[in-house]
Amino acid sequence: MAVLASEATGGSTWAVRVASVLALAAAGCGGGHGVGLVCQTSVAGYCVEVGNCPRTWTEAQDTLLVCQQGFNKSVPICGEYRELIAMGIDSGMRYYYDLRTGALVAVVSYGYPGGESCVAGPGAFLVPSCDGSPASLLNCPTN
User: Fold this and answer.
1) Best CA proximity match to 44, nearest among 123, 118, 121, 110
2) Could you tell me if residue 109 is inside a domain?
3) Count of structural domains within the chain
């Protein structure tokens, strides 16, 4: 309700996003199943900013495209999502795609020492816990 009231009265985007994360936490959604994060921008805005962004799971299957962008790992099913990962030594990016529609839903960065941050997505995004989900390395060309 706090989110709707804030939006109806012209409340700030920041306040709406914080209220969304608090609502997720209050509902018990974060209880060991994932982490609720406030997203910095929309997926559409992020993809325009970074340029070549795989916006669907079908595009994410284009190995040449995703390998050129530094992606190197894929999780076929992670709760309600499919996950594409660009993993570095101490940081990386995770792209989450809706399991049903294939649309890019959120982009989460992670790393040392900052932890996780929702770079793009809805106002608030509950990062799924994908521990135990089988992951596969992408067969990226070496040239």
Assistant:
1) 121
2) yes
3) 1
**Which domain does 117 fall in, by range?**
33-137
Query: Residues 6 or more apart from 49 whose CB is under 8 A from it?
Result: 41
Q: What is the pLDDT along the chain (143 residues), one digit of tens a residue?
A: 333 333 333 444 434 343 343 333 333 333 334 678 999 999 999 999 988 788 998 888 876 777 777 777 777 788 899 888 887 788 888 899 999 999 999 999 988 877 889 999 998 999 887 766 667 777 776 65
Q: Do 11 and 20 contact (CB within 8 A), yes or no?
A: no
For residue 124, the number of C-alpha atoms closer than 13 Å in the C-beta half-sphere is 20
Does a structural domain hold residue 28? no
Q: pTM value?
A: 0.70
Q: Is residue 99 part of a domain?
A: yes
| Cross-strand partners of 28 | none
Does residue 59 form part of some domain? yes
Return d(Cα 53, Cα 68) in angstroms, integer: 11
